[in-house]
Every structure is written in C-alpha cells, then in structure tokens.
TrEMBL record:
GO terms for biological process: methylation. Its EC number is 2.1.1.195. It comes from Roseofilum halophilum BLCC-M91. This is Cobalt-precorrin-5B C(1)-methyltransferase. It catalyses: Co-precorrin-5B + S-adenosyl-L-methionine = Co-precorrin-6A + S-adenosyl-L-homocysteine.
C-alpha cells in the first residue's frame, strides 16, 4: 500500500504553552496522572489532545507543566524544545484578571513595546480560553511561561531584527504549524507555480508572510504571487523549466541577502553568512575600513542597515543605496545565472528588499511601479 506523502502539520509554540499551563492548573487543582490534555485551538476550530511530558507540584499553590514542541514536518529549530508553564495561585487583590500571563526565561522581550514579553494576541487568547474552564470558583492564577532553550535558540533567528530580544516569541494567528519547509511542501509549491505559469509571464516570489502582505499592500495581483518559503533555489529552477519570462523576488533583506552570496536555500539551519556578505559588498561600495570592522561586528543585518543609515546621516554619503545597490545587483545576476545553469533557460530576475518595518530599502524593478 502506498504511503501518504503529504507533509505532516504540527502545532505552533502557543499551543504547547497552553497545553503545559492547562496541565499545571489541573495538577494544582488536585488532578493526578496527567499524560495529556485536551485543547481547543480556536483557530482552526478544533479540539486536539497534546502529550504532557511532566507535571508536578513545586510547592503548595504552585505546579509545573512541561510539553515538547512538535512543529510537524518542518525544518524548525523549536522541534522537541521543552515548553514550561509555572502556574501559581495568587491573591485576588494582586490581579484584576483571574489569569495573569507573564514571560519567564527564554521568552523574548519586545524592544519597541516597553520590554513586554513577546506573547502575542493568539497565544494570550488561547491561554485564557483553555484555562478559564479549569479555574475553581474565585481562583486567581499567575502563569509564567518559560522556554529553557529559548535564549540560545533565538540567536539562530532574525528575531532581534524585528525587535524581539533575549528569547523566542509566542507568535502566530493559528494553532497549526503548516510544513512550509518540508520537501513535500516543495512539491506543492511547484504545482502552484506550474499552474500560474500557464497564465502569467511574470510572477512574484514571496518567502514568507511579511513579503506576501507587503506585495499585496503595494497592489501586486495576488494571482501572480507564489509563496516559496526557504526553497528559493528549487523554485527559481522551476520557473526556468516553466519558461517564465520574469521573476520578482519580494523579501526581507536579512533573507534575500544570502542570494548575493550564492546561497539559494535560505533556512538558517542550512546556511548563513549574512554579515559576511553585507560587509563584502560594503567594501565593494567603498565603505572605509574602520566602518567595515564596525559593520561586521553587528549582531544582525538589520543592525548593520541601521549603522549604514546613521553613517549616511552623519556624512551625507548615500551608503544605503550604494551598498544595497551592489547587493540587489548581485541577487539579480546570481539568480539569473543559477536558473540558466539549472535549466538552460534565460529568466529575468528583479528584487525588492524591505526592512523589519516593511519599508522598502531598494529594488531593481525599472519596469514596475512600486508605490
């Protein structure tokens, strides 16, 4: 019997945070032998059972629940990472809300939001919705979420560029983690591209949700947009095989910059070198030596961009345009060369790079009006 080759979806981090919290609250309220909990995901509207790795009382009035993240068939650095929830009973006078949610170790802090824990709307809603029915009458609780490996894992992401520091964020608008980085998903992306290639000579490649949202905001026809996730190399080759005339790449500069260095799979677990690439093209653009050293010491390419903007303001030199002009040119050239080598088909490639605020830094689309 043939096996089902469809990629297996998993769940987002907020789901495991909620599962751990529900288990801890059940334990706090006297339930024993908790091996799994039932959770309403809200979006999608379905109830699922999540395994609980450990649950125990820490002291009177406090319990700990632990689950392990399962993102499905994704290349996801949070796979199997432990997600802790400490639930403790608090006095009613200490809180107006019967459920207080706070971020502990490994939960990121929002730089642009007074350092508040990066526990976003869906995670908050999911926790409240599933904890509320478990509360005893007049019970008030504080839930402290902890990702023991969060601080180290965050160093391998672009979160700092988007204003989240010291840990991971509980982000997302749904409980399902779609396997956008699985090999099976690549096959689905290719099929979508093949269908659109029958209708359009120009397609817009968007790596993720930020690029997708910005492209639509700028008036790009959604029917011409193809989501690629991190599979840029194979998708560019497929565009050549389908004899597309033009591809426009829409992406966060911290992702697309990899193409300027010849890296055509942009997942952080497989290849990096972003700061090296930025510094190399800054040198080519004529940035002075002492500035190159400082640029290379940046924590992220977003921080590097901010330094270029600062030096531009101080000196009057157009460093952003000069450096990113070199980068965009190389992204286009190397992408075209990659397609030609893979398929022997010429495809024109253009690029649109934006920053963490979804502001376009630079683009190479002379024949496209970008508002």
């Amino acid at each position: 019997m043939a096996s089902d080759s469809s990629p297996r979806p998993g769940y987002t981090l907020p789901v495991f945070a909620a599962a751990s919290a529900v288990a801890a609250l059940k334990c706090l309220n006297g339930e024993v032998e908790i091996e799994s909990v039932s959770l309403d995901l809200i979006d999608p509207a379905q109830t699922v059972n999540l395994a609980i790795a450990e649950v125990s009382r820490i002291r009177p009035g406090m319990a700990l629940g632990i689950s392990h993240s399962d993102p499905g068939d994704n290349l996801d650095l949070t796979r199997y990472t432990p997600v802790w929830a400490l639930v403790e009973t608090v006095s009613r006078k200490d809180s107006e809300d019967p459920i207080e949610i706070v971020g502990g170790e490994g939960i990121g802090k929002q730089v642009d939001n007074e350092g508040k824990a990066a526990i976003y709307r869906y995670a908050q809603k999911l926790l409240h919705h599933n904890l509320q029915p478990q509360l005893s009458p007049d019970q008030y609780i504080r839930v402290t979420l902890v990702l023991p490996e969060g601080r180290n894992l965050a160093k391998r992401t672009s979160l700092e560029a988007f204003g989240v520091v010291e840990g991971l964020s509980l982000l997302g608008t749904t409980g399902i983690s779609q396997p956008l980085s699985s090999p099976e998903q690549l096959s689905q992306f290719r099929r979508i591209l093949q269908e659109k290639a029958r209708q359009y000579d120009r397609l817009f490649f968007c790596l993720g949700e930020n690029g997708l949202a910005l492209a639509k905001q700028k008036g790009i026809d959604p029917q011409q947009i193809v989501k690629t996730a991190n599979w840029l190399g194979p998708m560019l080759a497929e565009a050549g095989a389908q004899q597309i005339k033009e591809i426009v790449l829409w992406g966060y500069h911290g992702k697309l910059i990899k193409l300027a260095g010849g890296i055509f799979h942009t997942h952080h677990d497989l290849a990096d070198g972003r700061l090296e690439i930025l510094t190399a093209y800054a040198m080519k653009a004529g940035l002075p030596g002492e500035k190159l050293t400082e640029l290379f010491s940046s924590k992220t390419v977003q921080e590097g961009l901010e330094k270029l903007r600062q030096w531009e303001h101080e000196s009057g030199e157009n460093w952003v345009e000069r450096v990113y002009g070199e980068i965009v040119t190389q992204i286009d050239r190397r992408s075209q060369a990659y397609i030609l080598k893979q398929t022997q088909q010429p495809v024109q490639v253009r690029s649109v790079l934006f920053d963490r605020d979804r502001q376009i830094i630079l683009h190479s689309c002379e024949n496209l009006t970008i508002r």
